[in-house]
Design brief:
With 128 residues, this protein is mainly α. It has 7 helices and 2 strands; from the N terminus they run E-H-H-H-H-H-E-H-H. Helix 1 packs across helix 4, helix 3 runs antiparallel to helix 4 and helix 4 packs across helix 5.
Length: 128
Amino acid sequence: MEKVTLPKEVAEAIEEVWESLTHKFGAARLIKSGCLTNWMMLRNNYPRQYNILYDYFKDYPVEYVTALAHGYEVEKTPEDDLRNYYEANAWIGVPELTSAEKRARCNVRIGVWETLAILGIEIEGINA
């Protein structure tokens, strides 16, 4: 079965709860899909994650349970896409580039950096 793509917020909530539970009880004794669909336990012990997970589950129950059983990928955010674009325009350590290509890549990166500065946005890996 194909992996489900989950929103970053949902994937992070799953990982936070799962890490906490496996730390407390040991992974060998737990079943991921059972723990992460025990809504009463989640609501009482992990209220922030419960809100995120249950809201997603209400709208996408099959995808949620499939992700727990078969694994998932994390949906890329616009910040991830911009970071990838920024990194793809690196020129250091790429000796086969001409001076003009290096300058073009440098200008792209400066443009991204300056746009974020104008908008007051910080993105890890670019300007934060």
